[in-house]
Write a structure and sequence with these properties.
mainly alpha; 346 residues
């Protein structure tokens, strides 16, 4: 039903790149081809190669470089009069904005990308942009608003046999089920995503699915050893492809598994590692979640109660301002867990 996964963001002279290509290699070849396009005065090719450069920088956590690259790609696409290429550049910019926690900007750019994709006759960038909008809403915890869109995009991806997009949609729906306590349904969806990704040779999608399975195995079954084994398998793919963000989230999840197992000192080390990684790539959501895990671990290890209260109160404010409702609820549960509600820091 599904063919081998492809990376539609690798365009122009870079279409031969694999979805599993190391991002370091993608960046090097992308820059080389971009320079060639600039020298030959081909803005259409500049836009296409610049997109790959922007995405490699983003996934490597090089936020400033990614921001400059997607904007340059958009300018080149506009100069070439290439509507679809403009849409792809805006998709990259919107995805970067979401990664940086700028959710209103992400929605604006992704909405524009979807519109341009439709006008330019590129159903793939339209689908990716709508998926980006759905993921933005999901990350913010607005499940009612984006659940139907996730299901619609899943149906479209299945109909076209797009393995990578099907895996993305399955994982998004699974995450919503996991966050609302439907663990069995979430596990089944993550398991299906892992199977499709493995058969389609989509190592990135497979790594994210394994992370989801590890989470369910840990929280539902209490099987920390199997969860850690799944995360180790996922980490190998993250390292092979230089997936900085995915690797940081893997480390944060490893911290979660260790915390649930009562291995608080080990969990603290993993949360500290993830926190450092997220800060290096300016990813505020991952940073906040790592701070939460670290605060809980330190509390279990005997940290002063007032310090725990102050840290959780500050995190609550950060997440409230960012509009991350699900993560904000997690902080509320942590405050209740340790008996340090907001009144404790007044």
């Amino acid at each position: 039903m599904y063919g081998k996964a492809v990376a539609p963001e690798y365009q122009g002279a870079l279409t031969s790149l694999s979805v599993n290509s190391s991002l370091v290699d993608v960046l090097a070849e992308g820059i080389e081809r971009l320079r060639e396009a600039e020298r030959s005065g081909r803005p259409d090719e500049e836009a296409r190669c610049g997109l790959a450069v922007a995405e490699a920088h983003r996934r490597l956590g090089q936020v400033g470089d990614a921001d400059r690259a997607w904007k340059a790609s958009y300018r080149a696409a506009r100069a070439a009069g290439d509507t679809a290429a403009m849409a792809w550049a805006l998709w990259s910019g919107g995805t970067l904005a979401r990664q940086r926690g700028a959710f209103p900007l992400a929605r604006r750019l992704l909405g524009l990308a979807a519109d341009l994709g439709e006008r330019g006759g590129d159903v793939v960038v339209r689908g990716y942009s709508l998926a980006g909008l759905a993921e933005t809403g999901r990350i913010q915890g607005d499940y009612a608003a984006v659940g139907r869109l996730h299901e619609q995009l899943l149906a479209e991806a299945r109909r076209r046999g797009e393995a990578r997009h099907t895996v993305w949609a399955l994982e998004g729906i699974a995450q919503m089920h996991r966050n609302t306590g439907s663990y069995d349904r979430a596990y089944a969806l993550f398991e299906e995503a892992a199977g499709i990704a493995a058969r389609a040779e989509d190592r990135r999608g497979h790594a994210w699915a394994l992370r989801g399975l590890a989470d369910i195995v840990s929280v539902r079954d209490g099987d920390s050893e199997r969860a850690l084994a799944l995360l180790s398998e996922a980490e190998r793919s993250c390292r092979a492809m230089n997936l900085s963000s995915a690797l940081a989230y893997n480390h944060k999840m490893r911290g979660n598994v260790l915390y649930r197992a009562g291995r608080y000192a080990e969990a603290r080390e993993l949360y500290e590692l993830a926190l450092t990684e997220f800060r290096a790539m300016s990813e505020p959501r991952g940073e906040a979640l790592s701070r939460l895990g670290l605060a809980k671990s330190l509390a279990r290890l005997g940290r002063d109660r007032a310090e725990t209260a102050a840290e959780l109160a500050d995190l609550a404010g950060v997440l409230e301002r960012a509009g991350l409702r699900h993560a904000r609820d997690m902080v509320t549960r942590a405050q209740a867990e340790f008996g340090v509600g907001t009144e404790a820091v007044r």
